[in-house]
Amino acid sequence: MDKQEILEKKIKEWGASLVGFSNLEEIVPENLSDISYGISIVIKLSDRIVDEITDKPTHTYYHHYRAVNNLIDLITLRTVLLLEEWGYKALAVPASQSIADLGEYRGLFPHKTAATRAGLGWIGKNGLLVTEEYGPRVRLGTVLTNMPLKTGTPVTQSRCGSCRICVDACPAMALYGALWKEGIPREEIVDAKACSEYMKNFKHIGRGHVCGICMEVCPYGKRKKSVDR
How far apart are CA 142 and CA 144, in angstroms? Predict the structure, then answer.
């Protein structure tokens, strides 16, 4: 078993549902050019909790969202420490992060970009990563490293087709119905500000997450559940 296989095995033992590897050399910012390989970590959300979302988020969903983010950050930390122990450079991108200097609602590096490059899924009309295994019912983490990795085959096109279920269900009218393809600006798919502003209606539940309606209604997530049963 080589080091990449050991790494993937460890990450899954620590709680990841899916792990992917990508080459981000052409798209990482200059200050990250020395760590241009990506390790994408996917955590599946609880179907029972997501299914409880109807016309608004629930207290349980908010707690679950934060707990999963914490788990992702712990897994990416352990991944970084292991890579450093092996003599490589590594940096964990926080599960939920917004850095004003980089633009509105943007983090150090986009998790979904790393995940699509790793072949884990595509960006849906809801602006979320959609996986074949779990639909959009997932949260993401990313580790950037200089460890040479065998990478997945990038996904470059949406598989949403003509479906508009999430677009029509969005109470914030933040989704435009555009089909994603690699390189399309996020602003052509989702109005991130409108999505965030809508959550002000639920301050009694919590802040710092999305309402989840577009995730709950997605047929890909529902299809996986029906197959499992």
Answer: 7
Could you list the beta-strand ranges (E) of 32-107: 37-44, 90-93
Structure tokens at 14: 């620590």
For 25-35, what is each residue's pLDDT tens digit?
999 999 999 99
Global pTM reads: 0.91
Tokens of 53: 């979302």
Strands 122-123 and 90-93: unpaired
pLDDT in tens, 36-74: 999 999 999 999 999 999 888 888 998 999 999 999 999
Q: How many CB atoms lie within 10 A of CB 228?
A: 7
Distance between CA atoms of residues 205 and 212, nearest Å: 13
CA atoms of 152 and 21, how far apart (whole Å): 6
Amino acid identity, position 56: K
Give the Cα-Cα-Cα angle 186, 34, 91 (nearest 5 degrees).
Answer: 70
Which residues are part of the catalytic machinery? 101
